[in-house]
Structure formats: C-alpha cells, structure tokens
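Following up on my earlier message about (2S)-2-hydroxybutanedioic acid. Here are the inputs again, as you asked, copied directly from the submission form:
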Amino acid sequence: GKVRAPTHIISTISDDRGEEPCYAGVPMSTIVEQGYGVGDVLSLLWFKRSLPRYCTQFIEICIMLCADHGPCVSGAHNTIVTARAGKDLVSSLVSGLLTIGPRFGGAIDDAARYFKDAYDRGLTPYEFVEGMKKKGIRVPGIGHRIKSRDNRDKRVELLQQYAHTHFPSVKYMEYAVKVETYTLSKANNLVLNVDGAIGSLFLDLLAGSGMFSKQEIDEIVEIGYLNGLFVLARSIGLIGHTFDQKRLKQPLYRHPWEDVLYTK
Ligand code: ACO
Ligand code: LMR
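Thanks, got it. Here's what our run produced:
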C-alpha cells in the first residue's frame, strides 16, 4: 500500500491547492457569490464552521465598535509615536498592538473565563468579586479610565441591546451586569467595560447558538480566542492613525519635560 511520509505541519482551516482557495471547505467563489461578510469569514477561519447570521452580525458589530477609541489610548498613542519616528506601517501597527493586554483591550478572554467559572459555580456577585479581591486579582471586564456610572460606555449599551433582541439567552451577560451592579456600589468607575461585555456576550453566543458542544466551548475559552476580536478590530484604527500621522507630516515626537516628575 501507499506509505504516507510524515508531514511537518498539520492545518485544518484553509486549503489553496485546488482551483480556488477554500476557507473551512467553503470555496472563495461561494464566499463572494453568496455575499459572505467579514463575520462569516472569521467564523470559518476561527471556528471552522458557518454561524447563523445573528452571530456573524454580532461579530461584525464587535469589530466596528472596537475599531478605534481616539488618539489618547495606549495602542493609538504607541502607533502615533512610532509613525512619527518615521517607521513603516507594520512597525507602527505592531507597536500599538503590543499594548493590548490585561489592562487594555486584552481582558476579553479572562473576563469570559472568570464570568463563566463564577456563573457556572453559582457564585453570587458578592462571593465572586470579594473572592477575586482576596486573591488580589482585578475583575477582568470591570473598570474604565474615563467611563463611569454617569458616563456609560455607549458601545456596551449597543452590544447589550443587540443581544437582547437577537440572542436566545443572555444569561452570562445578565450575570456580568449583576457583577457590575455590585462593583458600582464600591466605586463609580467600576462599570462593565467593552471587554467584559464582549467576553460575557460571546459566552452567550457560544452557548445559545447550538453550534458548539460544551467541550468546544471550554476549549475556546481555555485557548482564548476572544482577545483576537479586539486585536483584529483595533488594527483598523491603528492603521488609520499611522496614515493620519504620515498625511499630517508630523515630526518626531518628544514628550515635554514639564509633563515628567523628575525625582529621586
Ligand atoms: N476589579 C476590582 N477592583 C478594581 C478594578 C477591577 N477590575 N479596577 C479598578 N479597581 C479598584 C481597585 O481597588 C483599584 O485599586 P488598586 O490599584 O489598589 O488595585 C482602584 O479601583 C483604583 O483603580 P483605578 O485607578 O480607578 O483604575 P485604573 O483607572 O488605573 O484602571 C483599568 C482602569 C485598567 C481598566 C482597571 O479598571 C482594570 O484593571 N480593569 C480590569 C481589566 C480590564 O477589564 N481592562 C479592559 C478595559 S476596557 C478596554 O481597554 C477597551
Ligand atoms: C478603548 O477602547 O481603547 C478604550 O475603552 C480604552 C480607554 O481608555 O478609553
């Protein structure tokens, strides 16, 4: 019989060997002719399946809402400084992307992990938040530098509204909102932030769509797919900031001395 030489790479999401490339078995012509969107393509390449329209639309809304948040946030600031140092597009982009992490934009996976664990174990918001405090861990998905009880994050409201209308269940999001009610009783800026909203709502999407087994959901949460949504989305804005600085012919950035506390 045939002897198959061992391969050095295994790949399961795309194939370019035929007449046209396929994403998770779906040929490019189908993607174009049937009007697939970015949410559909993401579903094929990340989850290896087509998802219902309300799910792919939710993914696209996440991408649009997180595409940018002005020039002052960590990612845009880094990108702007890098572009002004005369660096190329990719360097400026990755300089901004490298700030995405547990404090900024990259708290989605941990928010999903902790909210899921707390909800599934039946913890009250009090038990959950105080338990985290005892462990010295800030609740991922809670807190914001400029948003607060009286200056709510519109993006969070829009995601919640969409899910209320289209998702069969929003149990994880409702749990996250109960956690927010408790944290807001402690401080005004401890709102459910956009990372927490996406993290909890994606749990609802995974559990409610009927497209994923329990084991698959656990794997997605454990591996951590969801920060990828912010990375993907914010790349759009960071590329825009790079072009903006180049267009404006901005010179090398130097931080003003007056804004530094020099001390021993
Ligand atoms: N959970 C519990 N307590 C918190 C949290 C939280 N998530 N955030 C702030 N606090 C409390 C803490 O007691 C903190 O004191 P500490 O420094 O001794 O821990 C106190 O509030 C003061 O914190 P602030 O100065 O108000 O918070 P800051 O403005 O520095 O941080 C931040 C904002 C980074 C978003 C913070 O709330 C946090 O770490 N949140 C969790 C991570 C997260 O969700 N990041 C995503 C933000 S949204 C985005 O980036 C797109
Ligand atoms: C963002 O999306 O970049 C913001 O939520 C972060 C911020 O501090 O405004």
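One observation from looking it over: The chain has a mean pLDDT of 97. Hope that helps, and feel free to reply on this thread.
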